[in-house]
Amino acid sequence: xxPHGMDLGAQNIGSPLxxxxxxxxxxxxxxxxxxxxxRQQSTFREALWWSIFWIVLSVGFGFFVxxxxxxxxxxxxxxxxxxxxxxxxxxxxxxxxxxxxxxxxPRFQHRVLFWGVxxxxxxxxxxxxxxxxxxxxxxxxxxxxxxxxxxxxxxILFHKEEETEPSDNAVVxxxxxxxxxxxxxxxxxxxxxxxxxxxxxxxLLALVAAETTDLIxxxxxxxxxxxVTDDPFLVFSSNICALLGLRALYxxxxxxxxxxxxxKPGLAAILIFxxxxxxxxxxxxxPTGTSLLIIAAILVVALVFSLLRxxxxxxxx
Length: 317
Hints:
Blueprint: H1 16-37, H2 44-69, H3 71-101, H4 106-137, H5 141-158, H6 170-178, E1 191-194, E2 197-200, H7 202-225, H8 232-244, H9 246-253, H10 263-279, H11 288-308
Antiparallel strand pairs: 1-2
Helix pairs in contact: 1-4, 1-8, 2-3, 2-9, 3-7, 3-8, 3-11, 4-7, 4-8, 5-7, 5-10, 6-7, 10-11
């Protein structure tokens, strides 16, 4: 790892073969996920097994990195993966509000989630490459990223979801003005033809809202991974692995999200930790393993306290 070193990128592991193999692998598992997502509705049991599959697959890839490229690189991947996986849970809170706002029935939510995750992978890939280029050219920008993360933590702690509806989105409003739209759900279609004209459906607006929301989350969460690695391949692969299981994870935890009262403060604490680590990068140099343990400990404490002291039913919304 070299977020604090001066010789950035000297030990990057991303050979063309590794990049190519990883991208092909991602394309294959996405094709499988697309086939699964075309079903009418995933059961809780199916979603749980798929969530386990994605986690095992990602952990297996992390061990491949560990044994092929070294323990330090493996730790960097695991730290980045755990960090981005935990932060991606905040996306799930927004998905709950988004589907409620657009009145998307559960049997069609999987379609919006799949294409939303696919768009997020393309979007984040672009942002990651830009972020890596900035960090390697202007090392001081790590401190700027750190300040962004501390501000994001403040937003998580004090911003209420009820203040802003996902449908109250400038991009969504622009799409609704520019395209003729139906007022009802037309099956699982984003577009339908009526009287020879193409109309968008509420599913399309939900997808647009999901993508624009992920852009905001990406601008907040992608800088966090630079607290543990600046290797372009490890930054990219840990982010993508964290995203791959998001569709299945949503169907597993959507009922429990409202009861996890200490999860958001836990995510804020993680962001404060990595933000301060980046702000103080010239003076503080924590080993990757220590950072991984701190992130994991904060997440475990937040989950345990949430399970021990869940919100009362009348406060869960």
